[in-house]
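DM from R.C. (forwarded with permission)

"hey, sorry to bug you on a friday — could you get me a structure for this? deadline for the figure draft is monday and I only need the backbone to look sensible"
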Amino acid sequence: MYRVTLLALAGCLALAGCDRLREASGGGEDTADLTSETPEQFIGTWAADCQRPFVRFAEHEIQVFADGQTYPITSVTYDGTSLVVAYTTGNGPIEETFAAQGENLSLMGGVYDGVDLPAADATPMQRCE
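My reply, with the result:
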């Protein structure tokens, strides 16, 4: 009986260890579609008026023209209609949601250092390059 209990306990610990290892490596069903690589169709500079660019997506980084900075992308998801890009600035983590409509992108809003804010103006942007 003691031996069976020890074997069952060892099995539970091994399964828990595998689950933690999978989570630490970024695996699992919940994160399978998360990546830090921008989908190819969004790479480039985007703006409503190309004389005043808004954002530039590269494979692994985002350039925000409003603050003149470039940040590494921490995650990107695209479900066919919404592009969600996460990155961290000196002011904290940001997760922005863009609506993808044909050849246009519109910033719908985001979570800025934990505060959920809609976009002030969801003007469609086109690729400028």
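R.C.: lifesaver. The first helix runs from residue 2 to 24.
me: no worries. Confidence is low (pLDDT under 50) at residues 1-32.
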